[in-house]
Design goal:
alpha+beta; nine-stranded mixed beta sheet; nine-stranded antiparallel beta sheet; about 1150 residues; 38 strands
Length: about 1150
């Protein structure tokens, strides 16, 4: 396995220091004394952990005898002085304490309104006037649910407490007060802001710290941010040369650090350090965050700036916004209908009870069962008046019929989703071998939404493509060099060792010849400038890897941008090799000659400028600005009048590259005069040392210096499509899912990729909107609407809808729009026009879009239609889009894991959308829809049986079914089978669903869950309740059977009937489903045995008496048959006369199974 070491070896016998490259210019940083051996730079740093006896520590006077003060928008940190003015470093992720657990947990559980409803029912049953069930029995179901949830929450919180204790009691090496190099162990929870902490290799950082010094001579440290953002690649951080040099000389630490207040931005940091009478700028590259691990660096020293709950990892500990599934939202509609039914039954019972009381008022003295009379005191029966009696009866009815709204439904849904998530994660078709990443379900509450998606919004780079960039061609000074051929690569010699770039790039023979002396000196210099810009204008850090041959080394270019890596590898293949990078300079081997370029300033890429630039001090004492970025950005800052031919030729080459699907960048250069440099340097230092508003100030400085640029050339980089992307998009379109691509690439590149992935076809009519003003956008949208209207008219047939008419005529529309036009359309009155145009198009391609524009496009559809939206991306620029969509999917790609961390589901490849949506999405939607409707149906059946009984008991709300059987019906008797079926049942096989994408449309059309199906289930419940009640009623009407025995029959019969109906609707049986469906009936019988065996309960021994008669078993058989007849008839007629697509596919599967069975018998 390859190991890593510093790029350029330090040597104690090196010759004299190399002079700085731009000595005539005021350097922005103090550099350490440099020694050169074969131009390999190093500095001697003593081991900071061995106290030096001949060096005395002198504390920084600027940091002594001052109290820390925190302003409104910034804070001051005194290096080496522990401060108690800020929060401690102890963290707490646990939610509860011993005292707060019970009230807080109950409060959180009762945030569900259904729990409040059941609590109110339980409280009502405690009142003597309205009590129906025993007080203990009525509390049991809700108490059981609350107890199980509380135990789960308590266990989870116990684990959090244990983790917190382990984390807070870890040890770190902290600089002892008043010493120079003596570090003593200290618990993490005792670390304070201002402490200086030493971290060794592979140790975890205890707090957010600004680097002061590292074991590397140049102040470089490598950290892994896996615990912070999930990324496994190493990040490079730097200690400023001022602090690195000071520590290396005498081991002293001091200074005053001013930084911004704690915030959640893990990619930004603004601060400055006052040291030795100088103010030094600090940025994101100088801070290391809590939870990161130090890698490939022996040690690093830093000062703590944020602790405990103010660290960035703790501020970002909250998850993504929670989402609710559409089925769960629609569930509220059915719950309202059931509530109306409940109120109707309760009103009916109470009014009829009032009528009965009115007709029997004179007989109440002799009807002791109505209200007991206290003969000992002579008090009359408890009669509260007609109005109050009706009201009391109404409340009693609410208690009896409460189960019509199933308390177990929510728990059942959670368990089913958990099981579905397990099987999705275990699906081998969702496992990515290349990245070894499994499918992850990060949001359990929207599994079923995967079966109803209508729109897919996809990023391009890293989502449709591999995001593994490969340099293909270049245009230099208006000449195209695209005849790349395979070469043996280029190597450099360092300390008698051969260093070779890890990746080889195809090179153009003519360009190689020109670089190596085949042209004029002026041409050669321009070509060198082009490749020097590629090698220097980036944030790439070279690492050297060992190989089996000790004389051979590999240069691995590490960076966060695959584009930059490809460009640096391309420059290396042509002989311009980046061999070292520090915070202050880079070393580049230029065709065998080692050169050092001082990094005087770096303006990072941002989405507004769409370019980055670096200002370097060259060995010839000149200062140059190298800039690269998008063509739309670079051509706006060039001297077109002086280089018109070159600009036009470069634009033509860019168009050619984009048409081939290549990613393009333009490279430019400008030489700065001394006054220009001094003016920029002053503004840059002021901006970079500002604590507040630094970003805007730096952008302003960059905009001023990035002007009058000479075009050096352009590059074309290929980003290949992922495997299976064209086939996946074609299948999604067959499933009537509209795929929109939202990308930051050029329009030509996006169109080329659109054709490559079969999103665009030659028979499509393209509508292109590419404007620079609001009025021109308005005009383009009006023309587009006119075009769509004309096509509708010409292609319409009869009374067909516009969409069907277009399809019948074979006309499909594709809308192509750029980000500049979206600036004038989104969040204005024009977005309604855009929506109308986009709805008519089968394909929409958005180019040059910013991250917020991606979210705006998703919102355009989400807020105006009921269609389900899904967004898929792999980078941080896709996070807003992913969180805006109904369903967010993150790709574990090359751009880190920000998209994964913000997503609802994550996976490794775009093609996995097919099994995710067409298979698991379809299954999840079908199962969950049936489970919800089945829960409503089975509970309504039972409640209606209770309602019919009330009609024959003088409306007194007494029940023949024991209270325990009533309460266990929803919790135990009928819940488990539907949970198992919701997890395991499959209406169609995976192969069929993938072969016929049109089957996915059942979820889009709400075929499995709608009001009609709900009403049908309620009608079936009504019929079956009538059969269950009246069959035994008429059979035993003239008998002397007791009510408890009859109640046991009424308790067992509904369980058999609803399980029989479940059995008829199950598609694929297995032993687990058999065990739960039939086992539940057996378990119900056993429970009845147990309940009737308890002598203190009413109905003692009743079940044994009635089960000993043949009539009991005959009635169960007749009830099961009679109750199921309508269901069988409706099912048979529907499947025979109006079969759905799914039913037809099931018949096809049966035929295939039969044919395969016959073939196997023959063979």
């Amino acid at each position: 396995m390859a190991s890593e070491r510093p790029l350029l070896d330090a040597s104690p016998d090196a010759p004299s220091p190399l002079p700085p490259a731009s000595s005539l210019l005021p350097p922005p940083q103090r550099e350490p004394p440099l020694r050169a051996e074969r131009l390999a730079f190093s500095v001697d740093i003593p081991d900071p952990f061995i106290p030096s006896s001949h060096r005395d520590h002198q504390p920084d006077p600027s940091a002594s005898q001052r109290e820390p003060q925190e302003g409104d928008e910034s804070r001051a940190v005194f290096v080496g002085e522990s401060s108690g003015a800020f929060v401690g470093n102890s963290i707490r992720t646990a939610k509860y304490s011993v005292l707060t657990f019970l009230p807080r947990n109950l409060f959180e559980q009762f945030r569900r309104l259904s729990y409040v409803y059941f609590l109110a029912i339980t409280v009502l049953n405690q009142l003597p006037q309205v009590a129906v069930f025993g007080r203990g029995a009525s509390v049991l179901p809700l108490a059981f649910v609350l107890f199980v949830t509380a135990v789960k929450d308590a266990y989870e919180d116990f684990r959090r407490h244990r983790s917190d204790r382990q984390e807070n009691n870890r040890l770190a090496a902290v600089l002892a007060p008043g010493t120079a190099r003596e570090f003593s162990p200290k618990k993490w929870k005792h670390i304070r802001v201002g402490d200086v902490v030493r971290v060794a290799s592979s140790e975890t950082l205890p707090a957010d710290m600004v680097l002061l010094a590292t074991s590397d001579s140049t102040g470089v440290a490598h950290v892994q941010t896996l615990n912070l953002d999930g990324e496994t690649n190493l990040k490079t951080r730097y200690a400023k040369q001022e602090t690195q040099l000071r520590f290396s000389q005498d081991g002293s630490i001091g200074g005053v650090l001013h930084c911004e207040r704690p915030n959640r931005n893990i990619y930004g940091f603004q601060a400055n350090l006052e040291i030795d009478g100088k103010r030094v700028s600090l940025g994101p590259s100088n801070i290391v965050l809590r939870g990161c691990e130090l890698k490939n660096t022996t040690w690093a020293i830093g000062v703590v700036v944020y602790t405990g709950k103010e660290t960035k990892v703790m501020l970002n500990s909250s998850g993504a916004p929670s989402k609710r599934s559409r089925l769960e939202t629609q569930l509220n509609r059915e719950t309202v209908i059931l509530s109306i039914m409940l109120i109707g039954m309760c009103t009916t019972a109470s009014v009829l009870a009032g009528i009965w009381l009115l007709n029997h008022r004179g007989d109440l003295e002799f009807t002791q069962f109505f209200r007991e009379k206290d003969y000992t005191t002579g008090k009359n029966y408890n009669y509260y008046g007609m109005g109050m009696q009706i009201f009391i009866t109404f409340l009693m009815a609410v208690i009896v019929y409460q189960v019509i709204i199933p308390i177990s439904l929510y728990i059942s849904m959670e368990l089913v989703r958990l099981g579905q998530a397990y099987f999705m994660g275990a699906d081998k078709d969702l496992y990515d071998e290349s990245s070894r990443s499994k499918f992850q379900c990060r949001a359990l509450n929207i599994n079923e939404d995967l079966g109803q998606v209508k729109y897919v919004f996809s990023d391009k780079t890293g989502t449709l493509t591999e995001n593994k960039m490969e340099f293909q061609c270049a245009s230099i000074r208006g000449v195209d060099y695209s005849s790349g051929k395979d070469t043996d690569g280029y190597s450099v010699v360092v300390d008698d060792l051969i260093w070779t770039p890890k990746m080889e790039v195809r090179t153009d023979p003519q360009l190689l010849k020109l670089l190596r002396g085949g042209g004029t000196d002026e041409e050669r210099m321009l070509f060198l400038e082009f490749f020097l810009a590629l090698a220097a204008c980036n944030t790439i850090v070279p690492l050297v890897l060992d190989t089996r041959d000790p004389k051979q080394k590999l240069i691995d270019y590490q960076g966060e941008s695959p584009d930059e890596q490809a460009l640096v590898y391309a420059a290396a293949s042509y002989g311009i090799v980046l061999v070292e990078r520090t915070s202050g300079y880079v070393v580049i081997d230029v065709l065998g000659e080692r050169r050092r370029f001082d990094i005087l300033g770096l303006h990072e890429f941002d989405s507004d400028r769409k370019r980055m630039s670096v200002i370097v001090g060259c060995p010839d004492k000149t200062v140059k600005l190298y800039v690269k970025g998008a063509d739309s950005s670079l051509f706006g800052i060039t001297k077109k009048s002086l280089e018109l031919d070159i600009v036009r030729a470069t634009e033509a080459h860019l168009h050619t590259y984009s048409s081939l699907g290549l990613r393009t960048l333009v490279v430019g250069m400008r030489e700065l005069s001394r006054p220009e440099f001094e003016e920029w340097q002053l503004a840059y230092e002021n901006a970079s040392t500002a604590v507040l508003g630094r970003g805007n100030l730096l952008r302003s400085v960059a905009a001023n210096i990035e002007s009058s640029v000479h075009i050096l050339g352009a590059t074309g980089i290929e980003d290949k499509l992922q495997d299976g992307v064209p086939e996946a998009i074609e299948s999604l379109r067959q499933a009537d899912i509209k795929v929109w691509i939202l990308t930051g690439d050029k329009q030509e590149t996006a169109i080329s990729i659109g054709y490559s992935c079969k999103l665009l076809t030659n028979d499509m009519t393209q509508i292109v909107i590419n404007n620079n003003s609001k009025e021109s956008c308005r005009k383009s949208l009006e023309e587009a609407l006119a075009t769509t209207k004309k096509l509708r008219i010409t292609s319409s047939i009869g009374m067909l809808s516009p969409e069907l008419a277009s399809e019948s005529a074979g006309i499909t529309l594709a809308l192509i729009i750029d980000g500049n036009s979206l600036v004038y359309i989104l969040e204005t009155e024009l977005q309604e026009e855009l929506f109308k145009v986009a709805r008519e198009c089968s394909v929409v391609l958005c180019c040059r879009v910013a991250p917020l524009q991606k979210a705006g496009i998703v919102a355009l559809i989400k807020n105006r239609t009921d269609d389900m939206t899904l967004a898929i991306g792999d980078g941080a620029n896709d996070v807003s889009m992913i969180q805006m969509a109904d369903v967010g999917v993150g790709i574990s790609g090359q751009e880190g894991r920000q998209a994964v961390m913000a997503s609802d589901f994550s996976m490794g490849q775009f093609r996995f959308l097919l099994p995710l949506l067409l298979v698991h999405g379809h299954w999840n939607y079908q199962r969950m829809s049936y489970m919800i409707l089945y829960n409503f149906y089975k509970n309504a059946t039972f409640v209606l049986v209770l309602f019919w009984y009330v009609l024959y008991t003088a409306f007194t709300l007494t029940t023949a079914i024991t209270e325990w059987s009533s309460l266990l019906y929803t919790v135990l008797y009928t819940s488990l089978p539907t949970i198992v079926v919701g997890i395991l049942d499959k209406d169609l096989s995976k192969a069929t669903l993938l072969a016929y994408p049109k089957l996915y449309g059942s979820g889009q059309r709400d075929e499995k869950y709608n009001v009609n199906l709900f009403i049908l289930n309620m009608l079936e419940a009504l019929w079956q309740s009538l059969v269950v009640f009246y069959m035994p009623y008429f059979a035993y009407r003239q008998s002397t059977i007791d009510m408890s025995s009859l109640g046991d029959l009424w308790a067992l019969a509904p369980v058999i009937v609803v399980n029989m109906q479940l059995a008829t609707d199950i598609f694929r049986w297995n032993w687990i489903i058999h065990a739960f469906v039939w086992g539940t009936i057996a378990a119900t019988t056993i429970c009845l045995f147990v309940i009737d065996s308890i002598w203190i309960l009413p109905g003692y021994g009743a079940i044994f008496h009635i089960m000993g008669t043949g009539l009991f078993w005959l009635l169960l058989l007749i009830i099961a048959v009679a109750a199921m007849v309508p269901h069988f008839v409706i099912k048979a007629f529907a499947e025979y006369f109006t079969p759905s697509d799914i039913q037809i596919a099931r018949e096809m599967e049966k035929v295939d199974d039969v044919n395969q069975g016959k073939r196997s018998e023959i063979l």
